[in-house]
TrEMBL record:
<dbReference type="InterPro" id="IPR036208">
    <property type="entry name" value="VHL_sf"/>
</dbReference>
<protein>
    <recommendedName>
        <fullName>von Hippel-Lindau disease tumour suppressor beta domain-containing protein</fullName>
    </recommendedName>
</protein>
<dbReference type="InterPro" id="IPR024053">
    <property type="entry name" value="VHL_beta_dom"/>
</dbReference>
<dbReference type="InterPro" id="IPR037140">
    <property type="entry name" value="VHL_beta_dom_sf"/>
</dbReference>
<feature type="domain" description="von Hippel-Lindau disease tumour suppressor beta">
    <location>
        <begin position="94"/>
        <end position="147"/>
    </location>
</feature>
<dbReference type="Pfam" id="PF01847">
    <property type="entry name" value="VHL"/>
</dbReference>
Length: 882
């Protein structure tokens, strides 16, 4: 028998808070192993080990070898016991885990990687029967902070021997008992106070700074006890986070689960923010990668929201995500396919109604939606663009009307980005799209967003007015700014600039609104400098400087100096004169900016003078850069350039330089028609592999002679195409660096697109050869999409997929030339992707039922599985589209 008593005279003021504590201690008999009973009885006994950063893995080892588990009933956690591989005989052990202690304990199983899974939460006298195996590691943890009831080292060998001898005919009883060693008054008080605080959190419907602060103040704890209590609370939260980050009250109310964040008093806040373990929970790159991957694979967006909410735990500043987390999510979104991006947007948007009453949830969802739209390649994301223009635009109006300007401004940026992108690029890349129709659609969407006159009144910072001026500028229209409206915009911008220290700030959610306004102005700075009046322009720069971080301010000012649109005339003077009067941080001054501007102006004055046409020769053109070449050829006739090219001796110069000059001439002089020369073939043969410039030159040559009336200028087009196609090589057979391989891939796709657009009558004869070339592009696109996930390298994967999509679009338009060949392209291009990429979707759209049946019947089992997965996604995509 053992009984440890505590001395209440050490801290009488604390002893009075909790009353007598003798009832906390119980007389606990030390258990013995009884091999004669039906149960082999063994009680865990030992000191409790204090922990702060992680749970000390003190385990019950039944043998040295960890065998494969079998699936059994689990009260909490994932299904851990799964039958994997053969199970050896006599390996199973029937265990009864009982709680003989006077506190709540967790029954925890530990896997090979020391990851802990809670199987049950046992109160006093509770037990659970589980069939386990020799070598499995089980432990009892305190349910409050995860402290362990450790093994008595002297009894381990005897216990293991008994298990091996009797495991096939007896059941094992393992129990947790109360430890009575090493307890002090301070330790007991901390546990009682922590229990009271957690009970208060669990019983309070709305936990805020005031209620928690009043509760802690009522305890009147000394400062030293406050600090120790804060550290103890941290250890409790860290333990709860292991199992209850998605379900427990602590995970919900303290870390984030759609409920308001708890704001601790200052001393607790400081300890929470400085604790390395809490910071590790708040943001871990590997953990965030895992969260995003799980969201991609399982489409469990509520779980994603809870996990990211835990990363955003910032009690002092309110809700916000770390900048490193935002940049990592931006890289992840940039790697998504158009279909995945649409599913992300749809899944996140579906969470908004359930998060209506929780501001932090709404902020997180809107931040994710905006990051998604900002980073996903939008040219091929047709469904995502349509979703933003319909659902998200309607949600924008709703947010503006109910006064949630911080959320409405972020979503308005998404809609504005889509509209500006389509007005700038969509006409050039999609067939049958007229600019008049694009303008009409954009005006209709924007007018619906601003249909209610009160929207401009509820906008606290002129965000809608500035967005409207930018939108009308993209349409080529003037957005009239009257004197009262101009003055109102200036006042609103000044209000946003001074909101941190002003009593008339925008409210508690103004940081997101100001961030959206800052991104709007900085992203379209050159346009705003040209369309805004002087007073508004000055207020705009005052706002930008006020909200720029110190490390970003210098970058902002240098961008102003280097922007060609801002350097022009009166606009330049207006910008820099307005900056001169603004308060600037100490390390920055405008003299450096003016010197950059002076150097830029001097560079313009010292540009190369135009060369006399009589002095032009092939050698003189080779010595000029592309910029000087364009200036020198101003006013030079096409006949003169043709004569120079025809008289040039290519053998004297390096082939790469000659090819570069020929390509530059074709780009600068678009109406130039150079007759075909046999020396062009010698140039292509002389270039070292990979012949990227040769393929680019071949594509430009085909485009040049596409509409030429002189058929004699290029009489051997078919032979030249065959010659260029013979240059194509699989990417894995090239002996060069990665940059050269990437350029060669893009050059190959560029040549094939030129062939489709210029010589469609030759496609029937070249179709079998083109079909053999296509699978290499799909394999390469899949490889670079998986490997190049970080920006800016990931942009090449986007370019490659975009070029491949344009080629597949041409194939679909002329699918008659590829009669019965497209199924073989798909069968050779299956890469095992779980996502249906857009180029593959285009090829699927060209197949009929006979082609699909041909594929299903002639593929191997492994390839048929890949095909069936993509086929299901294709049909699902068609349902969504139409």
């Amino acid at each position: 028998m053992t009984l440890t008593r505590v001395n209440s005279n050490d801290h009488p003021e604390l002893y009075q808070l909790i009353g007598p504590i003798e009832e906390l201690y119980q007389l606990v008999p030390i258990g013995q192993i009884d091999v004669s009973s039906d149960y082999v009885n063994y009680q865990l006994i030992g000191p409790i080990h204090a922990i702060n950063d992680a749970v000390f893995y003190n385990t019950l080892a039944l043998s040295n070898q960890l065998e494969a588990p079998i699936q059994l009933l689990a009260i909490e956690g994932p299904p851990l016991f799964q039958l994997v591989g053969p199970v050896p005989r006599l390996a199973r052990i029937r265990c009864r885990f009982a709680n003989d202690s006077h506190k709540l304990v967790d029954l925890v199983w530990t896997d090979n990687n020391h990851r802990m899974y809670r199987y049950a939460k046992l109160a006093h006298t509770d037990f659970i029967d589980i069939t386990t195996f020799e070598g499995h590691q089980w432990v009892f943890c305190d349910a409050l902070d995860g402290e362990l009831n450790s093994l008595n080292p002297g009894r381990v060998k005897k216990f293991i021997a008994s298990v091996h001898q009797n495991s096939h005919r007896r059941r094992l009883r393992v129990s947790a008992i109360s430890s009575v060693e090493g307890l002090t008054l301070k330790r007991v008080i901390l546990r009682l106070l922590a229990s009271k605080i957690f009970d208060h959190w669990n019983s309070t419907d709305c936990c805020d700074c005031r209620s928690i602060g009043l509760f802690l103040e009522s305890l009147r704890l000394p400062v030293c006890i406050q600090i120790q209590l804060a550290n103890f609370l941290i250890s409790c939260i860290l333990y709860q986070f292991k199992f209850d980050s998605n379900r427990s009250n602590i995970g919900q109310k303290c870390l984030f689960d759609g409920l308001p964040l708890i704001h601790f008093p200052f001393s607790f806040t400081a300890l929470f923010m400085l604790n390395p373990s809490v910071n590790k929970i708040r943001f871990s790159k590997d953990e965030l990668d895992k969260i995003l991957r799980n969201a991609d694979e399982q489409r469990d967006f509520p779980a994603l929201l809870r996990s990211l909410g835990q990363l955003a735990f910032r009690p002092t500043d309110g809700f916000s995500l770390p900048s490193s987390a935002l940049s990592q999510m931006a890289s992840h979104f940039a790697s998504l396919s158009p279909f995945s991006a649409f599913h992300w947007a749809n899944g996140l948007f579906a969470l908004l109604p359930s998060a209506e009453n929780y501001a932090n949830s709404e902020v997180l969802i809107v931040s994710l939606l905006r990051s998604l739209v900002d980073n996903v390649p939008l040219l091929n994301a047709n469904k995502l663009r349509a979703f933003v223009k319909t659902e998200i635009s309607r949600q924008c109006v709703s947010f503006w009307q109910i006064g949630k300007a911080h959320l409405a401004s972020a979503l308005t940026l998404c809609v504005l980005r889509i509209l500006l992108m389509e007005l700038s690029y969509l006409e050039a890349i999609q067939n049958g799209v007229c600019r008049v129709d694009l303008i009409a659609e954009a005006q209709n969407i924007w007018s619906q967003m601003l249909s209610a006159d009160e929207l401009l009144k509820v906008d606290p910072g002129a965000f809608l007015r500035l967005s409207s001026s930018l939108f009308h500028s993209a349409l080529g229209l003037d957005y009239p700014l009257t004197n009262p409206l101009e003055a109102n915009i200036v006042v609103c911008l000044k209000k946003c600039s001074n909101e941190m220290g002003s009593e008339n700030g925008l409210g508690k959610c103004d940081s997101l609104y100001c961030a959206s306004l800052f991104d709007l102005l900085s992203a379209h700075l050159a346009t705003f400098c040209q369309i805004l009046p002087g007073d508004v322009c000055r207020a705009m720069f005052e706002f930008l400087i006020a909200h720029s971080e110190r490390d970003n301010l210098e970058i902002l000012l240098k961008q102003l100096a280097k922007n060609s649109a801002i350097r022009c005339g009166e606009c330049c003077e207006k910008v820099f004169r307005s900056l001169c009067d603004l308060p600037m941080p100490s390390p920055f001054n405008l003299e450096e900016i003016w010197s950059i501007e002076t150097k830029s102006s001097g560079k313009k004055e010292t540009q190369a003078q135009k060369i006399d046409e009589s002095q032009l020769s092939w050698a003189s053109l080779l010595s000029l850069s592309d910029e000087c070449l364009a200036n020198s050829l101003v006013g030079v006739s096409n006949a003169k350039i043709e004569s120079i090219v025809l008289s040039a001796d290519f053998a004297v110069f390096q082939p790469e330089i000659c090819l570069r000059l020929l390509i530059s001439l074709m780009k600068i002089k678009r109406t130039l028609v150079i007759p075909f020369r046999c020396e062009f073939v010698h140039l292509i043969l002389a270039e070292e592999a990979p012949k990227s410039r040769s393929l680019e030159f071949g594509a430009k040559l085909l485009e040049m002679h596409a509409h030429s009336a002189d058929s004699d200028a290029f009489p051997v087009k078919s032979d030249f195409v065959s010659f260029c196609l013979a240059i194509f090589q699989p990417i894995d057979q090239l002996d060069c660096d990665q940059c050269a391989k990437r350029d060669f891939l893009l050059a190959e796709l560029s040549f094939l697109r030129a062939l489709f657009s210029v010589l469609p009558h030759l496609l029937t004869s070249f179709a079998p050869l083109i079909v053999q070339l296509l699978p290499d592009f799909f394999v390469s696109s899949n490889f670079y999409r998986r490997t190049l996930r970080e920006w800016p390298e990931s942009r090449f994967a986007d370019r490659l997929e975009h070029s491949l999509a344009l080629l597949c679009r041409e194939i679909v338009r002329r699918k008659k030339c590829f009669n019965k060949l497209l199924p073989f392209v798909i069968s050779s291009s299956l890469t095992g992707d779980r996502e249906l990429c857009f180029p593959m979707y285009l090829l699927f759209s060209a197949l009929d039922e006979n082609d699909l049946a041909l594929l299903s019947s002639n593929l191997s089992a492994a390839e048929k599985l890949k095909f069936s997965r993509l086929k299901v996604q294709f049909y699902a995509s068609n349902k969504i589209i139409g």
